[in-house]
């Protein structure tokens, strides 16, 4: 089935190439439709409903490339990650953000993906904090303080979506530096600038500001929406961040989500430390107490700080009374998969697939989907290098992107003990 | 499932993935015999299939040394082949179950490490989630999946990270994990799983009435649950246990690099090998808090 789909996708690509030459006298907007021929990819099912476009194999190839580049970075078995992050997102709301090359405008696209990013960020980094800063009329404003609640950040951003004036990188960096400089030394300080403008209008010497950020160990990354700018590149190089320019909306989304998993920890950037934390128990459903965060009497729910016995509504948080960081063990467990990543699966080579002497598994170990093509030929599949089980491409993506467990390794006791023995 | 997209799934059609604990160490030492348990269980599966003609049941056996699919109602043989004595569901399932138990026992014998008494819940949970992802992929209209763990043996601490990973993945794809724990103590893993994913955790008091428990609590589809008063969680223990002594603690030290939990201050992290600075971290964060105004 998969093979058939790929053939179709390839066939379409060839057709498009042929037609490109004839398209020269079309207007740009016409060409956009003539090239893509997006209607041809649509399919109907038996009842006449439109089926979603199936570009599985292409998507999977993309994903393999990504995971390979990730695993080549993390070749060492025990990589240290900066799991406690303090990130400032700087959103450029200068007049360049009103450009319509992204539809409906850069600003709206940025806001949409920042929303998704914030949720993903807190999902992957439950102990981290985030702040939002905007640049407008050459001045940087702090939209939200460093905090751990995704809702409040998203709400603040959506309420302030208007753009005007010039953009100023220096003002933004100065403001962010002021915030990040006071966080505890074990935290990783990061800035992510989403820059629409092609210039920066600064009150002083921006090089000095960059050096100041470097000294404070703030890792600055920039995603540009228009073109590469020297000063942004320089900033990222100096502070150890990454600089990228988005080609289109899909690319922008990919680039921003790359910042969600914790970056490898750089030893001199954050000092390892033991942090004292409390694990409060959930209060009984019927108890009444005044919570210290909203200062309201509440029935049931809530957690009690083990040190000062103050009541808080949500975890993770810092106790308002004694300053103890309060978390629950699942919050810690959410981050453990960054530390014990599963190895990328190997593609089973076509020569092995076509060898009639080798008996291959007929179905995916994870989801039981048949791994045979309509002609009873074995289809494309991947295998876990540890447990040697075969998986379909969809399971491969799910296992690496969301589950973070290999079902094969987890469901055999002796393979598990063998792995434990190796380590 | 290839023919599925054309069916019109209402909001009360469900796919139930049951994780069946077949741990021989547990069942041999347990007062309630496995055969009796199975008869309750099979009646329950039949009732699920009868409740809605489009309902689907998948059974994954959680063994001591391996896990495997033992029944899938969407792939079941047509009823005409059923052997005169037993309905197809029972004969199919029982045959596969027997094969599985023999294989599992065989695997255990090969293993030189002495008997382990916990079941491989992490494995069957991961498989169930992969299966459910396949249902999500089957089209925009798909039945509502949920997982039911029928667990008896105690938790295996070495599976903690894997089980938590599976729980978070289930939470992200909004798949509730129900758990019916028939062992003697409560299972902390399953309590957390049900609490985090919004499922039901139930520990039947009288196993003779197991079928009734299963039918009243776990047979309802997700849509109907909103109208029912299902058992509420009594209280989930979210305290952590420290890595050094495995003690349950309510206050402890966390390594800032790898988030390992310790009950005392150490000079070096035993998990990631980072050397720690001074113990004033908590003081620093407290003074920081004062500098920031707490009012937002």
What does this structure look like?
The complex is a heterodimer of chains A (423) and B (296). Chain A has 14 helices and 18 strands. With 423 residues, chain A is an alpha/beta fold. In chain A, β14 and β15 (325-326) form a beta hairpin. The model of chain A is unreliable at 1-22 and 415-423 (pLDDT under 50). By secondary structure, chain B is of the alpha/beta class. The termini of chain B are far apart. In chain B, β4, α5 and β5 (177-181) form a beta-alpha-beta unit. In chain B, strands 3-2-1-4-5-6 form a 6-stranded mixed beta sheet, with helices on both faces. At the A-B interface, β5, β9, α10, α12 and α14 of A face β3, α3, α4, α5 and β9 of B.
Count of DSSP-assigned helices of chain A: 14
Given as residue ranges, the uncertain stretches of chain A (5+ residues, pLDDT < 50) are: 1-22, 415-423
Structural class of chain B: alpha/beta
Q: Evaluate the radius of gyration of chain A.
A: 25 Å
Distance between the termini of chain A: 40 Å
C-alpha termini separation of chain B: 52 Å
Keywords:
A: six-stranded mixed beta sheet, three-stranded mixed beta sheet, 18 strands, globular, disordered N terminus, B: 296 residues, alpha/beta, Rossmann fold, 2 domains, six-stranded mixed beta sheet, two-stranded antiparallel sheet
What would you say about this model in short?
The complex is a heterodimer of chains A (423) and B (296). By secondary structure, chain A is an alpha/beta fold.
Itemize the secondary structure elements and their pairings.
The complex is a heterodimer of chains A (423) and B (296).
Chain A: H1 2-20, H2 28-36, E1 43-44, E2 50-51, H3 56-73, E3 85-92, H4 106-124, E4 129-136, E5 139-147, H5 150-159, H6 169-180, E6 188-195, H7 206-215, E7 218-224, H8 230-239, E8 243-245, H9 249-257, E9 274-278, E10 288-290, E11 297-299, E12 303-304, E13 311-312, E14 317-318, E15 325-326, H10 329-339, E16 346-347, H11 350-354, E17 382-383, E18 390-391, H12 393-403, H13 407-410, H14 413-422
Chain B: E1 14-21, H1 24-29, H2 34-51, E2 56-62, E3 67-72, H3 88-110, H4 121-137, E4 144-151, H5 160-172, E5 177-181, H6 188-197, E6 201-202, H7 210-218, H8 222-225, E7 240-241, E8 248-249, E9 251-255, E10 261-262, H9 281-291
């Amino acid at each position: 089935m998969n093979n058939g789909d790929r053939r179709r996708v390839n066939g379409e690509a060839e057709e498009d190439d042929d037609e490109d030459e004839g398209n020269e006298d079309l207007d740009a907007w016409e060409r956009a439709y003539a090239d893509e021929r997006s209607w041809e990819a649509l399919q109907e099912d038996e009842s006449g409903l439109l089926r979603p476009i199936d570009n599985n194999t292409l998507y999977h190839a993309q994903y393999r490339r990504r995971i390979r580049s990730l695993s080549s970075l993390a070749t060492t078995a025990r990589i240290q990650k900066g799991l406690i992050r303090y990130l400032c997102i700087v959103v450029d709301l200068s007049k360049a953000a009103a450009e319509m090359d992204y539809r409906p405008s850069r600003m709206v696209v940025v806001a949409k993906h920042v929303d998704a990013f914030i949720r993903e960020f807190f999902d992957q980094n439950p102990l981290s904090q985030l702040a939002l800063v905007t640049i407008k009329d050459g001045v940087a404003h702090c939209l939200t303080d460093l905090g751990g609640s995704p809702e409040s950040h998203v709400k603040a951003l959506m309420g302030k979506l208007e753009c005007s004036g010039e953009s100023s990188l220096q003002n933004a960096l100065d403001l962010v530096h002021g915030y990040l400089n006071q966080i505890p030394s074990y935290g990783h300080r990061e800035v992510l600038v989403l820059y629409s403008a092609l210039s920066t209008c600064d009150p002083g010497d921006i090089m000095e500001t960059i050096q100041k950020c470097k000294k404070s160990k703030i890792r600055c990354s920039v995603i540009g929406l228009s073109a590469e700018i020297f000063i942004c590149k320089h900033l990222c190089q100096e502070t150890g961040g990454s600089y990228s320019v988005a080609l289109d909306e899909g690319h922008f989304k990919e680039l921003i989500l790359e910042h969600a998993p914790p970056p490898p920890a750089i030893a001199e950037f954050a000092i390892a430390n033991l942090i004292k934390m409390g694990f409060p128990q959930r209060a009984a459903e019927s108890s009444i107490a005044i919570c210290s965060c909203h200062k309201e009497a509440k029935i049931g729910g809530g957690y009690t700080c083990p040190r000062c016995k103050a009541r808080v509504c949500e975890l993770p948080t810092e106790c308002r009374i004694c300053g103890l960081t309060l978390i629950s063990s699942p919050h810690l467990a959410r981050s453990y998969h960054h530390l014990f990543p599963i190895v990328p699966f190997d593609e089973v080579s076509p020569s092995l697939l076509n060898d009639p002497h080798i008996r291959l598994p007929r179905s995916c170990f994870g989801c039981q989907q048949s791994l045979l093509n309509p002609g009873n030929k074995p289809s494309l599949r991947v295998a876990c290098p540890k447990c040697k089980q075969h998986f379909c491409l969809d399971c491969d993506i799910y296992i690496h992107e969301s589950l973070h467990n290999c079902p094969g390794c987890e469901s055999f006791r002796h393979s598990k003990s063998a792995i434990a023995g190796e380590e | 499932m290839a023919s599925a997209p054309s069916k019109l799934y209402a909001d009360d059609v469900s796919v139930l993935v049951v994780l069946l604990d077949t741990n021989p160490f547990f069942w041999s030492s347990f007062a309630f015999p496995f055969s009796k348990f199975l008869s309750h269980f099979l009646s329950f599966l039949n009732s699920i299939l009868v409740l809605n003609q489009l309902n689907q049941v998948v059974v994954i056996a959680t063994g001591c040394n391996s896990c495997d699919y033992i029944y899938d109602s969407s792939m079941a043989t047509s009823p005409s082949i059923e052997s005169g004595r037993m309905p197809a569901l029972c004969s199919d399932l029982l045959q596969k179950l027997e094969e599985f138990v023999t294989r599992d026992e065989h695997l255990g014998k090969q293993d030189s490490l002495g008997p382990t008494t916990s079941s491989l819940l992490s494995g069957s949970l991961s498989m169930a989630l992969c299966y459910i992802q396949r249902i999500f992929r089957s089209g925009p209209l798909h039945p509502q999946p949920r997982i039911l763990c029928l667990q008896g043996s105690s938790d295996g601490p070495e599976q903690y990270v894997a089980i938590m990973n599976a729980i978070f993945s289930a939470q992200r794809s909004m798949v509730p994990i129900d758990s019916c724990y028939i062992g003697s103590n409560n299972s902390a893993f399953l309590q957390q799983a049900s609490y985090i994913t919004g499922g039901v955790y139930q520990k039947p008091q009288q196993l003779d009435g197991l079928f009734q428990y299963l039918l009243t609590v776990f047979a309802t589809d997700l849509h109907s649950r909103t109208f029912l008063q299902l058992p509420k969680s009594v209280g989930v223990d979210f305290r952590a246990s420290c890595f050094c002594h495995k003690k349950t603690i309510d206050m402890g030290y966390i390594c800032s690099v790898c988030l390992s939990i310790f009950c005392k201050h150490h000079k070096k992290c035993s998990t990631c090998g980072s050397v720690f600075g001074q113990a004033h971290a908590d003081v620093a964060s407290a003074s920081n808090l004062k500098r920031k105004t707490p009012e937002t």
